[in-house]
Amino acid sequence: MKKCLAVLLSLLLICSFAFAEDAITSATLNIDRLPEAEAQENGILVAFFSPDDTTRAAAYAVAAGLNAALFEIVPTEPYTEDDLNYFDSFARSIKESKDPLARPAIAALPENLEQYDTVLLGYPVWGGKAPKIMLTFLESVDLSGKTIVPFCTSNSSPFGTSDGDMKLLTDGSVTWRKGTRINKGSTAEEIIEKAPEILNPEE
Ligand SMILES: Cc1cc2nc3c(=O)[nH]c(=O)nc-3n(C[C@H](O)[C@H](O)[C@H](O)COP(=O)(O)O)c2cc1C
User: Fold this and answer.
1) What is the Å distance from ligand 1's center to 130 Cα?
2) Per-residue pLDDT reduced to its tens digit, 131-184
3) 59 C-alpha to center of ligand 1: Å?
4) Which is the closest atom of ligand 1 to the Cα of 93?
5) Atom of ligand 1 nearest to the CA of 50
6) What crossing angle do the helices spanning 188-199 and 54-66 adopt, rounded to 10°?
7) Is residue 100 packed enough to be buried (19+ CB in 10 Å), middle (13-18) or exposed (0-12)?
8) Which pLDDT value is given to residue 41?
9) What pTM does this model have?
10) Alpha-carbon radius of gyration of the chain
């Protein structure tokens, strides 16, 4: 009897997670319809990692709303569909998430970082945290003296302390602002309108 109950509960859990993902996928941002974000000389850079395009769409809209420049954090070894299968505990993304020393390599770093006072960091939540490639990024660039503003996308997890590991790496050398989770059901227009609030959240 207990066994049956446990199986039923596991099934319910899996179904609710799958349902949450479906509900969001149907309202996923359409990046084709996003306005082009052009690099402006206003000292703001939106740097993002997005192996499955959701955070990319959010980043484009945030950059458009702030007239900011965009930089994509591209992994040297791209993530395949299998790599991103979080139901597989041996998938690359899951193994990296669990390994505190994992630092996936980045193909290229941004040039002329000195022209930016503020850097927004966009990423998908992986296992309640930021993907390890974000740590590679922070360890590879000098952001001291700048204001850092994290934002994330996720299926259902709140922003929480998803930026915790990243913040630790900056060692107090930056001004770290509160982060925002961007809802996957948002339209590009909604994100553009919300961009100033993402940049300057209420503490
Ligand atoms: C390895 C992995 C772990 C994930 N962990 C979580 C999680 O803990 N909570 C959550 O709500 N979504 C989780 N997701 C879903 C992603 O955060 C979500 O789909 C995100 O919007 C994907 O962004 P992207 O399209 O830019 O990659 C996970 C996805 C992957 C691939």
Assistant:
1) 9
2) 999 999 999 999 999 999 999 999 999 999 999 999 999 988 999 999 999 999
3) 15
4) 1
5) 26
6) 70
7) exposed
8) 65
9) 0.85
10) 18
